[in-house]
Amino acid sequence: MNSRVLARQVYRRSRTPEQRLLAKLRHNGECLEFIGCRTPLGYGRISVGGETIYAHHLAYELAHGSIPNGHIIMHTCDNPSCCNAKHLVAGTHKENTHDSMRKGRWNTPRRIADRRAHQGANATRILDRADIEEIRNLKSDGYSCRQIAQRFGVGHNTIWRVVTKQSYREW
Length: 171
What we know:
It contains eight helices and six strands, in the order H-H-E-E-E-E-H-E-E-H-H-H-H-H. The chain has helices spanning 3-14, 17-23, 55-64, 93-102, 109-119, 129-140, 145-152, 156-163; strands at residues 25-28, 31-34, 45-48, 51-54, 72-75, 88-91.
């Protein structure tokens, strides 16, 4: 193995997840933005113990403890790359959806465009595990397949297949 690669791996393993997170944060106003690897929608990703997780989840857990069961981490600043613990709160999918609707971020043209851009070459697989969970939660909260489909920029038949577990059964 190349000595530089080995040295980099040893250095990476010698730093704690907290140290690695802090090294990737930069101030932008009151937000602490993660400047490392990000998802197409802007959420930071970081590797911890061989598993890749959202950077804002790590920031929340370091500041507040573990994420309560059945909850997600919401950004009060609406900046997906923000890891400022003061801007992160635990909430349910339903609370997050209502917050999004109240702030006028529900099904905005930019959000739809971001989702469509995320499709890339593999247009048949644009939904990730978090999307599948949110879709099923929204349907159980009484939203129609058409409303949910507009939110995710996919067809209502796709939503129906997700809800009835004809697609993404393993999730």
